Every structure is written in C-alpha cells, then in structure tokens.
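Forwarding these from the shared drive since the link keeps breaking.
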Amino acid sequence: VIFVMFWVWVFLVALVDCSARVQFKGRQLYVDNKPFEVRGVCYSPVPIGESPSYLPYGDYFTAKYAYMWSRDVPVMKAMGVNTVRIYGWDNSADHSLFLDYLSSMDMYVLITYYLGTAHESPVNNATARNAIVTSFAEQVARYAGHSAVLMWSFGNELNGVWNGFVTAFSDANQCGWTPSCLNNQDYRSHCVPQADCMYAGLFKWVNEAAAAAKAKADIPVVTGFADVDWMIGSTNHTLDKLKRNERFAPAVSAWGLQLYRGPTFTNAFSTFESASNRGLLVTEYGVDAYNDPCVWPENVHNNMCFNVLGDPAGGASAPPGLPFVGCKDTKQWCHVPGEVAQAEWGKNLTQELIRASTEAGGVVAGGFIMAWADEYWKNTAVQDMCRTPCPSADIDKCRGADRAKYSIGGSAACAQFSHITCGDANTSYHDLCGYALGSAPDGYVNEAWFGLLQPNTCGVEVGGGFRLDVVVPRPITGALAGLWGASISSINSSFSSCQDLKPCYDCLMAHTDEQLAETTACHVACFGKSDLNPADNWTTVYIVVGVASGAACVFVVCIFIAYNRKTKFLAEYNSSLL
C-alpha cells in the first residue's frame, strides 16, 4: 500500500506542476504558478551586410552563431528584459544551445513559427494547410520540455494583406473578399459576409494549428495580428474582426497585436477588453530612431524623398561638434534628433503598457518593443520604393541632372514619398528606405532604424553569414532600464568590444556544427562558464520534486506506523504484567 501511495503521489505532483509551467488564466499569464509580465524585445540579429534571403536565412540561433547572442543577452538582462521574440528559424536545425543559454540567464523566448507569405506557405487547399499544421506541431514537440520556451506564435501578421493569406483564404473558400473591403465599417456592405467567410477560414486554420501544438505540449499558442482591417476598435464594434471570429479559435490562448498608433496606444486596450476576454500581448510596438526630413511640413510638397544619409538636416543624432538641424516648427517632434524622439516615445508607450498590465488590474500581459538592433537588410524591399532605384554611388547625379527621372511620373517609376535609392540591395549601407506614416514622430518610418542599439561592424567575416558586429546603445536603452528596474551602469558594464567578442568568434569558426553539438569547448570563451546548467526538461524536474515529496511522505508514514506499533507493544506488555 505504501509503495502504491508513493508512486501515485509522484505522478500527481508531476502532473499538477507540469500543467502549470506556463499558462493563461483568463487574461493573466502565469509562469510556474506565479504571475508573469512580459518585458520583451523583438530579436532578429541579422549582421550588417547580410540578409535573411541568404544563408543562414535568418536563423542565427544555432550554436555556430553563439557569438551574437552571447553578445546581446547579457545586455538585455542588464536592461531588465525577461523575454525575447524571434521571427523564425530553420526547423531542421538544433537550437538547444540558444535555449539553454537563455535558461541559464533566467530569460524566456516567444518563438514565431515562420510562415512568411502565402507564396512561401501556400494555403490554397486542405492538404497544404494540414502539412503546415503538422510541421508546426512537430516543432513545438521538439522543444516541448525546455524551460526557456514561454510560448509559440503561429505566423506573423496573417491578416496583413501584404502577406497574402487573407486573399488566399477568400479564394480557397470562394468568399469573394478582395482588398477593396479593407477597413469597411458599413454593416450593410457586401464586404461584411465576405469578410466573415474569409476570416472564419483563417481563424479555424489558426485554431487547428494551436490545437495540434497543444496535443504535443501544454504551452500557450498565440498569433500576432497587424493593427489593420479593424481587428478591434471599429466605429460599430459588432464589425470588429476579433470579436466576430475568435469563437472559431478556442485553442488559441491569447491574441497578439502589433500596435503602431503614435505616442500612445490610444483606445487599443479598452476596445480589446470589449472584444475578447482572453489574454493580450502587444507583439510589436515602438518607433524608429531616424528623423527623416522627407515629409517635414516644409518638404512634404516635394512628394519624393531626395534626402540621403549624411545630409545636414535630420538624422538620428547631431553630427559631432555641430547642432542638430530639425524641422522649422519647434513644437513638433521632427525638430529634435530621431534618437531623442525614439527614447521619449518608447518610454511613454512602455509606461502605458505597465499601467495597462494585468499586474496593475488591466488587460495586457506585456509587450515586445521593436527592435533590438538596426537591420540594414530591411532596405531591400519596403512599402514605398522605385522600380529602378538610384545607385547610392550616383546619388548626386540622381538628385541633379536626372532628378526628373526620379520624380513622380518619371521613368524610374518611384512611388510617392519613396527614397530614390530604395529598395536598396546593398545590405552594408544604412539606407533610409520606408514609407510615410502620420503617426510617426517625423511622419516617416525608416525600416532599418528601429534598433534600441546601433550595430557597428568589426570588419571580420567568414562566408555563410558569419560577420562580427558590436552594438552601441541608444538613449532608449537607459529609458527602458529605468522602467524595468535596471540601471544604466549595469547596462554599460555588460557591453562587449570587438576584441572581447573575438575569442568566442574564433573558437566557433574553428569548429563544425557537429563538433559544437558534442562539445562545450567554446562555452568559456562565449559564456564565461563551461556549464550552462539549463533547467532542461521541466517534467524531469517536477518528477524529482515529486519523488522527494513522496519519499518524505513515506518516511512520515513509516514513523507513524512504527510509533503505533511501539505504543501497541507497550500497551500489550503492560497488560501482561498485570
């Protein structure tokens, strides 16, 4: 009986604790049965001169690239970051060392299962959709027991028309929906039933993925929606896409929203509260660090962006020894350096997140600020660009003798408010490609400038994407650290120089992937210790706890039985004497 009791106890303790490792209870996120607020950053450490279009296709999370995240994670930790969001990796590769390192630093990751566009991940028939769901579930199962995995996101911005999934689901289900129905708020419009048909198919597919993943691991699954087409907040709230369709996705634990609404989140949290009773993560927010003169009030009439990096006006900061030249209106954010606006807006948005957090009685489980470091590759393809961009080396000619070619209606076929060098295939150049957006501090979004830190090249590279960069903090890092309970001094002491990073880099380059999987030879050079001591498989941890608890229980029972027997023996002995 005692033996059976012992193993029942072990099983129950392990079962109860494992199911509670990460979960949403209503809107509140719990980790190890304790409330958890995500203080996150979006992390895609593509080096200067590289692109996700080439090896390793954006997957810098294998052991061979440990020199990158051993550079970054200590700085994140010093800032008060507790979670990173990544945008995908090679599903066939091993990412255990990256996860082990996060675990050793007491940090977590939200892993986005990369879907890209409907061209990359076709969903036009059930067979194709099921294959994606199966692959996603297998990837979740692979890392099911790892303590660093906070949750998974199925895709990114699946509702964004630019990714093609909404059109694909409309076509697959013969809904008749077209992009002309975007942002419809007329409940009498033909767009309403067409959108219902299309979104029902999309939400059901996301639900199938979440359900398949949860069959493999008891872990939250979310998806990050773009803040378009009135997911929440329509004038007639009955047309909110989330409110109308989340019933088709009961397996989704929480919803993610990418919010770029300006210096505040406006009414996003109150409208979400009326649309859903599930958890909410702000899966992207923030502003870029460049003040772009293109659409300043005094320049907007040009309809085109002829300014380039290095011009006297605008920029991220003032040139050394010179005053900053901003827009003429001193009351506008375009009057100050881009880094100043980024720090102030980022701080205010993060404060608003904290005030709206579930910890403070609100609806938000946390958020991820965009982004860790500038990504030069993002200049290659942006919303507004020229069909025949001006080569950077010819910029003087393009702005002078050939100006008409790059103006509206010119033969270069530039979209309105394009930078004339964009899209720029030179991923070693910090170009200004992007698009006009009224909610940005300067009215323009520069895609390659969202970093909380500025990367600088060390001039060291090996083929296959192995380039060595250092990162330099912008003012926003100190602003966020203050909100997250950290200090600027702790941040400054955690940065690495090119010289600091070289031993780790050299060690990794001297070993093959297979060797790195079997040895800890580079651990000291990269992490400062030979054993990361990850919390490995939490099921094992809880079973050990259960065994210890069960053993203690057995010990107490045995003492109790022994005491009863002793008492009975003494009573019988005394009775015999009488």
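-- next protein --
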Amino acid sequence: GSSDSNPDAYTRLLLDVLRGRSATFVREDELRRSWEIFTPLLHKIERENIRPVIYKRGTRGPPAADDFITEKTGYIRNKDYVFFSDGDVKRKSNNDAYGQVDIGVYGLSVMGQNFALNIASHGFDVCVGNRSPSKVDATVKRAESEVGGLPLIGSSGPEDFVKKLKRPRKIIILVQAGKPVDETIKALSKYLEKGDIIVDGGNEWYPNTIRRSKELEPKGILFVGMGISGGEEGARMGPSLMPGGPKEAYNELEKILTSCAAQVRGGPCVGYVGPIGSGNFVKMVHNGIEYADMQLIAEIYDILKNVVTLGNDEMSDIFAEWNKGKLESYLIEITASILSKKDDITGKGHVIDYILDKAGSKGTGKWTVQEAAQVSVAAPAISGALDARYISSRKEERVHASTILKGPEEVPAIHNEELIEDIGRALYAAKICSYAQGLAVVKSASDEKDWGINIASCVHLWKGGCIIRASLLDRIQEAFTNNPDLPNLMVDPTIATELEACIDSWRNVVIACTNHGIPCPALGGSLNYYDSYRTASSPANLTQAQRDFFGGHTYERTDLEGPHHSTWTSAHKDIGNIKERTKGNR
C-alpha cells in the first residue's frame, strides 16, 4: 500500500502507524462513551425535526449546545482552550483566564497538588498558587501530562491568583496548620471582597477556625473549615470531605465538592456538617477513631505474633481473610499488605521487622482526648491509643526498663484456630466500641454547641475515601438513621446483639494478653468501657463520698432530692449553703 488513494482499512491503519497519527486510534470504551454523548443529540434532532444551526468551521458553536451536552451527560466543556477559525486549537494564556476560573487551590504540597488535579479532572477550571513558584510549575506540568490535559493553570502570586477566579471567588487552602494558615489568609484576603469564600482544608484545631471566621466577618468573606481524609491517594481519586461553615458558602461549593469526593452507594462522601468549627471537629474525631483503630490492630498483631507465634505471611493471610467479612476495612486491608511486604533493602525477611517501634503523632489524637474530657465523655480506646504512642516514643527508656521490670514467667504459646477466631471477634467488638466513643464525643459537642450535627449523615461521610472507611459503617449509619436520638451506638438493638455474640471471645483475648504480659490499652480499654456502660450500679458512690469527706463537694442520695453533705468526723464542720457551694458543678 504505497498509494494514498482509496487504501483499504488495514492499509490505512498501517500507514497511520508509520506516520505517527496517534489521534486516529480510539479505545472501545472511549468510542462507546462518545456514542452515549451523541446518540441523544441525534435522537432529539430526529424527533423534533430540529434544523441544525450553521456556524463557522473551527469555532465552538452555540452555547446552547454546550448546555445540552452538560445536561444530558454531565460533561463540561473545557474553557481553557481557544478554537481558531483555521481549525487550530491553542491553550489560553494565563491572562486570558482572568475572572474565568471556577475555583482556586492555594498550597501545593502533594495533598494540595492531588486535590487540585482531582477537581480539574471533573471538568472544573482550576487555578493553583503557592508561595514557591516551582510547585506551581510542577502542578501545571502534571495537569498537562494527564491524558488530554486538565483545565488547570498557574498563577504568579496571590493577586494574580485571586484575579483569575470567578465571583464569588472560591479558594481552598491546603497549607500546614497554625501560623501558615493565618499568613496565607492575610496574603489572599487583601484582594478578596464581600461574598468570596475561603476554605481551609488542613487538620486545624476547630477554635482556630472559629477565630479566623470572626476575623474575616467585617470584610464579608465567608470562611469554611473542611476536614479532608484519605491521604494523598484519596485527595487525587476521591477523599472524604467534612465542611463546616456558613450554609450559603457550602451551597456555592456543593457542585464541585460532590463531584470530587469519594463516591459510594448512597451518594458522595461529602455533605454540610454544620456551622463554623463543626467540620474540623468531626475530622478531629475521625482522626481520634483512626488512632484507636490503628492501636487495636497493633495489639492484635502483637497477640498473633507473641501469643499465637505466627509468622508475618501467616498473619498477612489472616488479615486478608478478615477483610472478606465483617472486619472489611481500609486499615485491615493495608495491614495484610504491610505484613506480606518483603524488605527491598536487604533482600532478607519482611520490612515490618526492620521498622523501629516508635509511632509519631501530629496532634489530632490529643485534641480528641482533650475535647472528650471537655464534654465529659469517656473515650478510653482513643486515649489508650494516644498513651501507647507516647510510651512507644520513649524507646531508650523502655529498653532500659526491660532489664529491670519483670513480666510473667515463660508462658506457653497458644497456637490454635479457636483463639484466632476469638481474636477476630474481639477486634470486631472493640472496633464497634471505638466508633461508639468517637460518635459520643461528636454528639455531646454538637448538643453543647448547638451545631445540629446529624450523626447518621456524619457516618456516611466516612464510608469512602477516608482512612477509617469500613463495612461496619453501614450498620452504624443504619442505627442512627433508625434512631437519631440514640444515646450511644452500643444500645442499638442490632449492635447490642453483635457485641453480645463477641463478648466471651473478647474477654478470653484480654485475659490472654494479661497472662502473657502484653499491653492492650485499646482492646482492654474498650472492654472496660463496655462493662462500665452496662453497669447499673457502679462503685462511684464511694468516690463521691471521698470527695465530700476531704473537700466538702457534697453528694446526691438515692432516696432524697438535692445535694447533701455529711459531718464525717468531729473535725468536719458545717459547709454552709450547699446550693451556693455546688453552683456550677458539672
């Protein structure tokens, strides 16, 4: 086939390959999607006898065509390109984009870059900015390297960044929590006006978010604190988003956020959480539950390794099997992968055995424990997980203490299938309790601060994209949907039945830990939480009597109303007006 005239299809294919005409080739799925777009157009023309609008070759055509395509298929025309009459297509320069870009992302760590690319991949025009220009250039290059290119442009500085955005301007900042957030807001807000929106997507302590919102109020700038979970992969492919702030701001952001959030059965993993501060609070508690979940898995790993004496590959297989059932979750899934990973550096053994046993933390776990105390909610799995990280960081002290402090004498290993089944059930029950504790913190804080957080909707946000996503969340969401006023997850009838089925196994595992000297602050703490919550009569009467004895704190009686005080010894005196003394007691 040397001739170009009327070649058969196969010859034309070979000729196109030799000439490098890659645009000729279309994948079958692309072809099918193209027909999904054009078929309704052709049917509409045929049904309604529409006379096609004639427009000059190479131009974009009537806006109505764009609107129709968007309505029928969800596709949005990429406005970042100019179509010239000679058929040429060129990308707009940055100056062409002034006032045209849908949203801005400022702060281009890997998280910021990935989230910007995520938004752009859903057809929204994105402008990116960063204190260092090199990261702007790198992000733009990443967008250009994507198949077909993504509608993402850079900016030269805060003023240029803001000028490129449509009104009301929508900006998501993803910089390190604390002072960098304040500095970024200061740099951008001088170019913003009433009705513009700033979203802080970092792991920020919620009082700081409330403060910033108040500081921006005089200028009329709307501020949103939005928790983002899912790590770098989630940011690119679809994270869990927890926005809290003015409802009018969320309404402006909703179309973009619902498009780029993780998608699960029941809808995208994003929704309006509540007033300013609530989004950061929910993300903080999410991280607290994450601490507890990770600690539970670490304790189970410790038991399987040192009580059941399994190898890494055997443990990996167990976690992989658990991930096919009730324990299915992101953290169980990655644990199976971690345990089976061979060491790339030495080529010997598994990488897990070379990792130093010191766990870091960035503050959200500590904040969760502090806020739980603030609203008088027990969260032993979360606090136990935090304590375990603190103790792990004191590696040298632990090594020294191991030569002085003695544990149980040599205890025989327990290598049987029944114990492994007990361990799986114990983990499941403890996971339920860790969610119960975290959601109790959210509910109490929401009631106290009048945030009106819908717990069932909050749980839905965690069902995809985030670190604590798990099949268990379906049952938890159902529990709070059936009873929005549920005081605690554990008393839902279905959940209570599941806990009852696990309780003997749970106790057996905690006993095994005690006998072998294995610490289990989350596993044991959750069991103590369960037992404390189900106890109708606790020993707290003695504690309150002691408080009254040494401090005159008074107590309530089971048979009489109001506060009371006893003259416990001849040394005790009348404490005066009891009601005045106890005013303000929590």
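Confidence is low (pLDDT under 50) at residues 1-7. The two ends are 91 Å apart (CA to CA).

- D.
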